[in-house]
Amino acid sequence: MADNKKEFNTKIYGIFAIIIVAAVLVALTLFAYTSRYTALSPEKTARLYVDTIVQSGDGYSAYKNSLLSYEGKFGDFIRKNYIYPEIYENYKPGDSTKGLKGLNDKELKGEKTLNDDGSLQGKVTDRMYGCFLDLVRENNGFDNYDAIFKAYISELKKVRKEIFEDDYFDDEAFFTAFEANLSKYGESLTGCEDEFDKNTGIQIKEAVKGVYQTAFGDEYEIKTEIVSVKDADIPDTSEYGIDAGIDEAKTVTLKVTAANTTVIDGIDITVVRIGHSWYVANKSCDTSALYKFYNDEV
Prior knowledge:
Layout: H1 10-38, H2 42-56, H3 59-62, H4 74-87, H5 111-115, H6 119-138, H7 145-164, H8 171-190, E1 195-196, E2 203-205, H9 211-216, E3 222-231, E4 248-258, E5 261-274, E6 277-280
Antiparallel strand pairs: 1-2, 3-4, 4-5, 5-6
C-alpha cells in the first residue's frame, strides 16, 4: 500500500470515477463481441463464464453469457426488473415506460444535480462501495443477483438523495455507481498502481497489492481448465421469464489453477442450447467457490 497521504481532490475523484465507468463499458463491449462467437460452443461458454468471475470477481459481467441475457442486453434486464420498478409507481417488469412519469422526471432535478461537475457523483460512488462489498460477502458472490440488486438500489436511492438533496433517480445513477464499485472491487483482487492526474499531479488512485498477488505471488496467473462435459437435464426456461424452448443441455465441469496449484477442483456449470447458441443456465449453477480466495480478505 502506498504511503502517499496527499488529500484527494473530490472534483478529480468524481471525474475519475466516470472515466472508470467509461473504461468498464468499453471492456463490456469487447466482452459482448467475444461472447457472440463463444456462444457457439458449450465448453467455451462455460469456460468464459467461470473465467470472467475468477479473474477479477466479476460475477456481474458473467451474466452476459447467461439465460438472463437471452432476450437482450443484461443492462436491460436490470432496468426492467430492478430499476424501473423503483422509478415508476406501479410499474411491473415488461410494462412499457412510454408516457410514464417517475423519479427520472427532469423537473425533479435539484440545483446540485443540475450543476454537479462529477464530484458529488464521486461521493455517491465512494459511499456505495461499502454496501457493494457487504452484499458480495453476504451472498458469497453474485449468484443471488436478485437480493444484491434490490438491496443496492434501495440504499443508492437513500445515499443519492442525501448527497444531491433531491428526489431525482435514473438508471444512470445505478450503472455509474455499481460499475465503478465493481472496478474497484476487481482491483482489490488483482492489484493496481498509484495513479496521478496528468494535468494537476493530484493523486487519484492509491496503489493496492491485490489479494491474488498476496496469495499467489506478484507474477500470478489464474487458469481455468475443462475437466469433463456431460449431457444434463433440461431446466425450465420459465424461471428466466423466457418462452424459448431449450434444444439441449450439458454440464461442463472445470477446475481452476493458480501458481501451478489446483485451487478449485471441479465446479459444474450447466449450459443450454437454444437454436445455435449456448447460454449458462445460471440458476442451476453455484459459483460461490470461485470467491473463496478472497471473500474474507477484501
